[in-house]
Design brief:
- By secondary structure, this protein is an alpha+beta fold.
- It folds into four domains: 26-55 and 328-371, no CATH class; 60-111 and 169-324, atp-gated p2x4 ion channel domain (atp-gated p2x4 ion channel fold); 120-167, no CATH class; 384-419 and 449-555, no CATH class.
- Helices cover 29% and strands 25% of the residues.
- Strands 1, 5, 6, 7, 11, 12, 13 and 14 form an eight-stranded mixed beta sheet that branches. Strands 2, 8, 9 and 10 form a four-stranded antiparallel beta sheet that branches. The protein has a three-stranded antiparallel beta sheet with strand order 15-16-17.
- Strand 6 (145-152) and strand 7 (158-166) form a beta hairpin.
- It starts with a helix and ends in a 14-residue tail after the last helix.
- The chain crosses the membrane at residues 25-50.
- One of its GO terms (cellular component) is plasma membrane.
Length: 569
C-alpha cells in the first residue's frame, strides 16, 4: 500500500506545472541596463549567425594533392633537370603524404669503390698506434668497419683504417652560394581535388578556363595553381638564396571555406605560405640527406657517386570546411542563444547581490527590493515576529532576548500587508469618529489613572510581568491602545465574527458547549494575527501584545484562569 501511495503521488506530480514567481520593478536604471545588454547580445547573435554562418551544417574537407615541377639548371659543369633535382622517394619517406623535394645544394664524392681506406678524422677515429683501433668495431657515426690498423690520413694525421666505400666523404660545409641557386625560378603546378561526402560535392583548384601561362600572385592572380619557388619563399618571408644553402621545410597551405548554398555560393582556395623548420637551431639546421648513383666499370667492379643533397621540402597542407543550410542547425543556434539574454538579468542580480553584501551606503529602493526578493526561512524557536500599531511593517526579533521584548532591536521582515477587512460589518464615519473620541478619552484617563502600568508599556493597558518575552505593548510610542479601537472590537472580540469563523472551519460545531470560550479565545488570537500580520503563515512565531492578550482573555476567560503560554494558548 505504501509503495502504491508513493507511486500515485509521483504520478500526480507529472501533471503539475510549476511557474516561477517574478518581481516587477519600476526602475529606469534597471530597464536601461537590461535593454542595453539585450541590444549587445542581439548584435552579437546576428553577427555570429550571418558572418559565421551558424545556420549551416559544416563538414571537414577531404583532399588529394598532385604536383608537377618544371625547370632546368646549369651547375657543376652539367645540366640538372627535373629527374635529377627532384627526389620522388624523399616525398614517400617523410611523414607528410602531400610533399615534394627540390634539391638546391649538393656535395659530391665521386668514384667511390669498396675497399680499405683511412677513416675521416674525428676524435674517435684519430690514432697513434694500432692499439687505438679495434678490428671489427663499428660506430654509428663511422663510414665503415675498422680493420684494426692505424694508417696515415695525411701528412699530419693518422686514423683507423676501415672497410668502406673509398674514398670516404669529407664532412665539409655546404657550398656558398648554393650550387642550384637558379632553382629559384623553377615552377610547380599543384593540383588539388577536394570532396565533401556529406553534401556529395567535389571540386578542384584548377578552373575549366585555366590559363597555363599564369603565375601565382597574391594580388593579380590569387587563384593560379602554378607557383614560382622564389615567390613561395618570398611570401613565407624567407630569402631563397639563404635557405638554398642548407635547405629547409616550407608549408604551402590551401584553405577552402566553401559556402554551398545556392543563393550565396562560393568555393575557392586561399593560398598561404610559412616556414615549418626552426632556422635558429645551431645543430642540424636546414634539411639534407644522402643518396648515391651506381654504375659498373669494365672490370666488373661497382662504382658509385655519393651525393649529400641539401634542399627545400614543400609540404602541401589542405584544410577547410564546407557548409550548407540546415533548418535544424538554425533552430539549434537560436535555441542556444536565447539563454544569452539571461545574462542581462544575471548582471542586474549580481549588482543587487554586491550591494547587499556591501555596507558602505544604503539605498531605500534597493533595501525594499532585497526584502521583497529574498526571504529568510528560520525555525520558530530562533525568531519572534511583532507588529506595532504605529509602525507600517512587521519586525523580526532573534532569540535569545537580553532585555524586554518591547526594547529589543529587530529588523524589518516585510512591508505591512493590507489590513484585514470584515465584509460583513461596516461602520459610518460618525460611529467611527464617536468610537475614536471615546477611545482617546479612555486612553487619557487610563494613562493618568494606572499607577501599576509597567515602564515598557506605551498604551497604559499592559499588565506587569517579569518575563522578557511577555513584555510587549501594541505600540512603540505613547498613544492610544489598539484594544480601544472599533476595528479591534469588530475583528477580534466580536462574538458574531468569531462564531462565523468557527462555523466556517467546522459547520457542525456546538456554539453552546462548555468549552466554547477556549475555541472563541483561540480563534480571536488567529483573527488578531491575520489582521496585524496579514497571514497565518507566521502564526507559530508571532507574539501578541500584553494588552491585546489580556483583553481577549478577559472577554473569553478560561475556566480556572490557568493560562499555559504567552502566545496563543
Amino acid at each position: 500500500e505504501v509503495l502504491t501511495m508513493v507511486a500515485c503521488g509521483r504520478l500526480k506530480d507529472l501533471f503539475h506545472y510549476d511557474s516561477p514567481k517574478l518581481i516587477r520593478v519600476q526602475s529606469v536604471g534597471c530597464v536601461c541596463v537590461k535593454w542595453f545588454i539585450y541590444l549587445v547580445i542581439a548584435v552579437y547573435v546576428c553577427y555570429t549567425l550571418i558572418v559565421h554562418k551558424r545556420y549551416q551544417e559544416k563538414e571537414e574537407v577531404t583532399s588529394s594533392v598532385r604536383t608537377s615541377l618544371k625547370g632546368v639548371a646549369h651547375a657543376v659543369s652539367r645540366i640538372w633537370d627535373v629527374a635529377e633535382y627532384t627526389i620522388p622517394m624523399q616525398a614517400s619517406l617523410n611523414s607528410t603524404r602531400d610533399s615534394f623535394f627540390v634539391m638546391t645544394n649538393v656535395i659530391q664524392t665521386e668514384n667511390q669503390l669498396q675497399g680499405t681506406c683511412p677513416e675521416y678524422p674525428v676524435a674517435k677515429t684519430i690514432c697513434s698506434s694500432e692499439k687505438s683501433c679495434e678490428k671489427g668495431s663499428v660506430d654509428i657515426h663511422s663510414n665503415g668497419v675498422q680493420t684494426g690498423r692505424c694508417v696515415r690520413y695525411n701528412a699530419t694525421l693518422k686514423t683507423c683504417e676501415i672497410m668502406a666505400w673509398c674514398p670516404v666523404q669529407t664532412e665539409e660545409a655546404p657550398p656558398v652560394p648554393a650550387v642550384l641557386r637558379s632553382s629559384e625560378d623553377f615552377t610547380v603546378l599543384i593540383k588539388n581535388n577536394i570532396h565533401f561526402p556529406k553534401f556529395n560535392y567535389t571540386i578542384q583548384n584548377i578552373s575549366p578556363n585555366f590559363n597555363s601561362s599564369c603565375i601565382f600572385n597574391k594580388i593579380t592572380s590569387p587563384l593560379c595553381p602554378i607557383f614560382r619557388l622564389g615567390d613561395i619563399l618570398q611570401e613565407a618571408k624567407e630569402n631563397f638564396s639563404e635557405v638554398a644553402v642548407k635547405g629547409g621545410i616550407i608549408a604551402i597551405e590551401i584553405k577552402w571555406d566553401c559556402n554551398l548554398d545556392s543563393w550565396s555560393y562560393s568555393c575557392s582556395p586561399e593560398y598561404s605560405f610559412r616556414r615549418l623548420d626552426d632556422k635558429t637551431r645551431s645543430q642540424y639546421p636546414g634539411f639534407s640527406f644522402r643518396f648515391a648513383r651506381y654504375h659498373k666499370l669494365q672490370n666488373g667492379r661497382e662504382q658509385r657517386t655519393l651525393f649529400k643533397a641539401y634542399g627545400i621540402r614543400f609540404d602541401v597542407l589542405v584544410f577547410g570546411t564546407g557548409g550548407k543550410f540546415r533548418s535544424i542547425e538554425l533552430f539549434t543556434f537560436i535555441g542556444s542563444t536565447i539563454t544569452y539574454f539571461g545574462v542581462a538579468l544575471t548582471a542586474i542580480e549580481m549588482c543587487f547581490h554586491l550591494y547587499n553584501c556591501s555596507s558602505c551606503c544604503k539605498i531605500p529602493f534597493c533595501e525594499i527590493l532585497i526584502r521583497k526578493k529574498y526571504e529568510t526561512v528560520l525555525r520558530p524557536k530562533q525568531v519572534m515576529f511583532v507588529s506595532y500599531v504605529d509602525e507600517p511593517h512587521v519586525t523580526l526579533i532573534k532569540k535569545p532576548l537580553k532585555t524586554s521584548l518591547q526594547y529589543a532591536e529587530g529588523s524589518i521582515f516585510e512591508d505591512h500587508p493590507v489590513k484585514f477587512c470584515d465584509p460583513r460589518s461596516f461602520c459610518t464615519s460618525e460611529s467611527e469618529n464617536h468610537d475614536t473620541g471615546e477611545s482617546e478619552l479612555s486612553w487619557l484617563m487610563q494613562s493618568t489613572s494606572s499607577p501599576n502600568c509597567p515602564k515598557w508599556c506605551c498604551c497604559g493597558r499592559c499588565k506587569l510581568t517579569q518575563k522578557y518575552h511577555e513584555q510587549l505593548c501594541c505600540r512603540r510610542t505613547n498613544g492610544q491602545c489598539i484594544t480601544t479601537t472599533y476595528w479591534f472590537k469588530q475583528l477580534v472580540l466580536s462574538r458574531d465574527t468569531l462564531n462565523k469563523a468557527l462555523l466556517y472551519k467546522d459547520p457542525f460545531l456546538d456554539l453552546t458547549g462548555s468549552n466554547i470560550n477556549n475555541e472563541l479565545r483561540h480563534v480571536a488570537y488567529k483573527q488578531y494575527v491575520h489582521w496585524r500580520f496579514g497571514s497565518f503563515d507566521l502564526e507559530d512565531r508571532t507574539v501578541i501584545p500584553s494588552c491585546c492578550r489580556g483583553k481577549i482573555r478577559n472577554t473569553y476567560p478560561k475556566a480556572g484562569g490557568n493560562y499555559t503560554g504567552f502566545q496563543m494558548e
